[in-house]
Predict the 3D structure of the following.
Amino acid sequence: MTMDLGMSERVRPLVEKVRKMVREEILPADEEYHSLVGADGDRFQFTARQTEIRESLKAKAKAQGLWNFWLTDSERGFGLSTVEYAYLAEEMGWCMLAPEVFNCSAPDTGNMEVIERYGTAEHKEKWLKPLLDGEIRSAFLMTEPDVASSDATNLEFSAVKDGDEWVFNGEKYWSSGAGDPRCEVYVLMARTAPRDGDVPRHSQHSMFLIPADLPGVEILRPMTVFGHDDAPHGHMHIRFTNVRVPADSLLIGEGRGFEVSQGRLGPGRIHHCMRSVGQAERALELMCKRALNRTAFGRPLAKLGANYDIIAECRIAIEQARLLCLKAAWMMDQGDARAAAPWISQIKVAAPNMALKVIDEAMQMHGGTGVSQDTPLAAMYAGMRTLRFADGPDAVHRMQVARKELKAYTNTKV
Amino acid sequence: MTMDLGMSERVRPLVEKVRKMVREEILPADEEYHSLVGADGDRFQFTARQTEIRESLKAKAKAQGLWNFWLTDSERGFGLSTVEYAYLAEEMGWCMLAPEVFNCSAPDTGNMEVIERYGTAEHKEKWLKPLLDGEIRSAFLMTEPDVASSDATNLEFSAVKDGDEWVFNGEKYWSSGAGDPRCEVYVLMARTAPRDGDVPRHSQHSMFLIPADLPGVEILRPMTVFGHDDAPHGHMHIRFTNVRVPADSLLIGEGRGFEVSQGRLGPGRIHHCMRSVGQAERALELMCKRALNRTAFGRPLAKLGANYDIIAECRIAIEQARLLCLKAAWMMDQGDARAAAPWISQIKVAAPNMALKVIDEAMQMHGGTGVSQDTPLAAMYAGMRTLRFADGPDAVHRMQVARKELKAYTNTKV
Amino acid sequence: MTMDLGMSERVRPLVEKVRKMVREEILPADEEYHSLVGADGDRFQFTARQTEIRESLKAKAKAQGLWNFWLTDSERGFGLSTVEYAYLAEEMGWCMLAPEVFNCSAPDTGNMEVIERYGTAEHKEKWLKPLLDGEIRSAFLMTEPDVASSDATNLEFSAVKDGDEWVFNGEKYWSSGAGDPRCEVYVLMARTAPRDGDVPRHSQHSMFLIPADLPGVEILRPMTVFGHDDAPHGHMHIRFTNVRVPADSLLIGEGRGFEVSQGRLGPGRIHHCMRSVGQAERALELMCKRALNRTAFGRPLAKLGANYDIIAECRIAIEQARLLCLKAAWMMDQGDARAAAPWISQIKVAAPNMALKVIDEAMQMHGGTGVSQDTPLAAMYAGMRTLRFADGPDAVHRMQVARKELKAYTNTKV
Amino acid sequence: MTMDLGMSERVRPLVEKVRKMVREEILPADEEYHSLVGADGDRFQFTARQTEIRESLKAKAKAQGLWNFWLTDSERGFGLSTVEYAYLAEEMGWCMLAPEVFNCSAPDTGNMEVIERYGTAEHKEKWLKPLLDGEIRSAFLMTEPDVASSDATNLEFSAVKDGDEWVFNGEKYWSSGAGDPRCEVYVLMARTAPRDGDVPRHSQHSMFLIPADLPGVEILRPMTVFGHDDAPHGHMHIRFTNVRVPADSLLIGEGRGFEVSQGRLGPGRIHHCMRSVGQAERALELMCKRALNRTAFGRPLAKLGANYDIIAECRIAIEQARLLCLKAAWMMDQGDARAAAPWISQIKVAAPNMALKVIDEAMQMHGGTGVSQDTPLAAMYAGMRTLRFADGPDAVHRMQVARKELKAYTNTKV
């Protein structure tokens, strides 16, 4: 059986176009775009100039057909494989703004997949269409402040059936994207059966699709990441008080929340990881340039001490993580999600840790400049650091990998 | 020869008082204090409430004699040894605001030492006295944006003699504390001999003591650390254009800048390192509490996976770094700065790296909360990360340690 | 309270004499001594020349009073503190043969302590006296092949009371020293109560003192360490079949085996750790000399790549481990074994891992020579590697450290 | 362009046959085979039983056509690609004896490639044929005891033209395979131009093909690896005194030694690395089985402490190294050796370090048993440790990787 991890003929020109646009147009615009956050007073609104920057880039991308690449294995769009998409995700990872320019940004891609797979025709018309068109944005509400959400069976946010409606009460936080003024729809996981009743642990939760602006929904605050509020995207802390939604907000069926969330998270994790590889490549490029252009003790930094070794170790680490990510993507493309899962867990541990190491070394090569606003490295580090718990902390993924490994040698549960 | 690294009878009650005040009064006030930054519009001014919080704490500390501990080996104050002071520094490390409350904060302590040792009577009257009283603050201007300042012979900021005056031109950045509206005095290192002339490389620079508000001095911006501007303390980027200062601004003599800077940095590095140990202790406490109070997969986090091992490794790392720091302090107390230097380099590498590791593990134990505003961990991490280059990057300190090691086996320069 | 970790005036001349004798006499003799193993055909006998080398060194040491230093806090001998002894142990760690030359070698020191503390007058006359005189040697029989002996409650070797005698059945392995033809006495831990009966888990085992040459005792084979049999010392695998010993072989009382073994292991672990520090120092010396004396790409190895950083990191790691070891020794000297225990666990993890790292880097600096017979490094590595499980594997010691840490924050058992 | 790293349809049945034979026949025979070393007195001869074991396995392999797989891209044999061969090398890596059974063992494969590519018809008839048939063995003589051979321009072993002959003088060591009584031919690198003359540094050495039994050749001793002499294969230290060989012993031309050695080492490094992956897989299997079958503190080891995390990290590390190795093999298959070189350097660093880590963790999971003769782990570790300098130490390969990386950003030599 072939295991082609290369860049296909089909995707190569797309990768080249995306790379060119990211480096020549989006990266230069990104700085101005982010510098304007809050310029009109409200960090969670856009200035006219921001909208202009972003929408003109999006229009340009769309016009070239560089749009919705993430629709893998789909009749719509390019029908790329996950491996093919992975190469694009790496390029988009170079720049914070890039994924949105190509309508490939989290959490929208995962949410769109959910609606496509589990939504009704009405859901699709109302939300999938404008999402696919880049007109609105969405958020995924899962993590809760008061429980260890890494074990999602702990989630306590409650949805109670009341006649034809569901009534929501509880708090969610780290709802990434919910700060964006364009965010119109939430995918939300809620407890629909009590913890200690007869319902099995993995059937006590359900997934809902609801509008973002319901009465009783209160955005308490943005969570910060190393002090960054990531406005206006945001990672919001939201309280629901007696929020009522119609019965058809429930996706596929009561108690099937885990089914939806598992399906949702697999590809998203691979995208995150390939963007991490892109970030690491960018950090390594910055590191090498600094090493060559800065002189101390009479020699370029590159020639001092362990710097060759550091650069080499970064290169080796990046290549290994990229290949593992491509392998996980390839496993995904084989169509057996259960078989792919431990590979996704592997890369979910490996890629962010690798990228953190590379970014950290790049910071160190820059001295104080490395942690300052004069390079993107500190912001990259902060964002990357969250990936070690977002979509499951390292420890949980390692547990999955070890279980799979040990299962080969035993019949009993491990 | 005894090598007493213990807490002396003399310092023990001081440590206990400081610990009590830090944990019971300063830590609770710290949050409000920092939340008020910029509340009146200008991040580099204090609100009345901030001033009230800080000054009442300072008054309280002063009233108890908990003041200026850093005056080691001095007739003034307690005359503590460096080892004794180290125990106090650890306690003050628990909280950002604490060192200032006891008038023991960087960069003032180092600057006061410089003025005490090298200043004229007039300098002392004008600046040392109000610094010792906690009435004004100071900054140290060394690092420059355009050269690898880790090799300080690279510094290009220029001071040219013109009659009875010196004329300054150039830029400095990472001037920590220069943002504080109370900052009235700068200690500044400048090039007073050309790079390629006859003057030896380590005699081309001189140290100056100057007022902060001279004409031609322009504060360009605060440098940020992982996005934090650390207002109103700040790490300022400053431009000097034809700034004129009188001849008596020069400390001890032309070309003796390295002599002053070396004397200044030794104790400061130990203080930084012991505060790092305090930070690590605080992070470990937060980690342990989280591990006990949070439940996943039916058990407290403490009992899951590698968490026992992680906690143990953190404890082992902290103890080793603390002991090495105390040993370096003890070497300092023996009076031979040359012999102490490699020990200071050792701990300057070991302590911040240890603290980063502990803080990082504490973040991971907290999940998303760990990088957010809901714990102090992310801010601690950001601050600690700068210590891997402030006062010399790891690589330079390792080079010093290795040189000392190899010198034992060779007569030739290594 | 003082915490003097320095070399006392009392011990300094001893350290100097030991150092001189180790480096000038024992190290040079060691190579010949070990090269003669098996020269007469039987690896578990000594050649006449070996006996001559060893006994003349011992006689010389004894004549100078350099003997039985390990008798800490004792009226006999020097009455050294554990801290003082630690400095001597470090020196003796430089050379495999050295500890025996000064009658300070494992497992004899621990066994002598057991006999002194728990033995009868007759035991002392028969075995302690010749052990103290260096006339016979001993072994400690604890670990068993068929159970995870890291949890000593698992031990299954059985001792059954039969009239006035005990009857032993079972196997022990890793009985270090049992291969030495001079080994005359065993300290042995056996199960005296069934696993599933009423007796508490930590009272099911007892400690015995027995002659080495009883009928029914069969030495099956030496265990090897990376292929080394460590002859004639050996780490023997021994089978007992219906071996009968008199009732007075039982030490202090039935079911008190854990009490004895815990008392025995504490100081022994510190000795091991300080010898590890000595080994690391020797490895670092070899590394530095090689780095200076070997040239590649036109420069001494020291100047290539990361070698400065590697040397510095080794130095920093050694100093930290030494200080932690001295601190653990100091805790021991305070007389509260329970309080000292987690410190001993800390250093038991830290020191061997540190030494392995240093030795490994020294090997790498030597290239192929580093793993060959032309340096002592590979043998040092092999021996050191066993310390990560001997006297408790890393994981068990980390568990102890974490338990202690967490206990501070909870009332419930962790 | 496709980058198929999968197991091809062509090679899959070969892999399955090799795997079956390795696990069912060779592994069980290996223990007896190695236990017989020296049974007849001379460790560098074979016993009749050893010959029987080995030759019957070889005959069986040959009969099935499982032979000379390494002949990649060749008309002879299977004409496998390097990627295809890599999968076979992994399987053969499980067992020391396996590569020879399939006539794929080092250093013969590399030497055969040299003869095929650079040898005369006579060379091929005399030596290549019996090597391909598994009738004789060979050695590669490069490393020298007195110079840092990692920089091969240092080599001093001298070949001087004297009429129609070359005269050799000097010493070689780490000549792996030269101890085998069947070793009949040496590939040898010698200095043929003086260090300080006009000849460029990389043209001062030449490669020779000579019989193993010439007058003046003296085998001084086997080098040991962690005490193992690897008899009868051996890593011999050899002295040449006025050894005369005919002119046609010189391969391709005077001063072209580096050309030959570079061509020789590329594939060999990949083979080593894939065997390392096989060793790591075997170690992980042993680790998992032990983790499940051994109980401490009332639970299988697998469920204690960090063991899940350790197992997962090993799995993640293995997968990444395997993929990187396959990528390097694939680069090799693209036919541009220069482009493939940095990939080979990458995997040469990554694979042995990965395997050492996995084997070390497997040892730790086994406690004392892990370093003893009761598992193959210690021998595996010892062998693997040499790979961090054999065919170039880590530092040299990292230097190559960094150079390649930096070259992208500069026109000047780095």
Chain B has a mean pLDDT of 95. Chain B has three domains: 12-105, 137-255, 258-407.
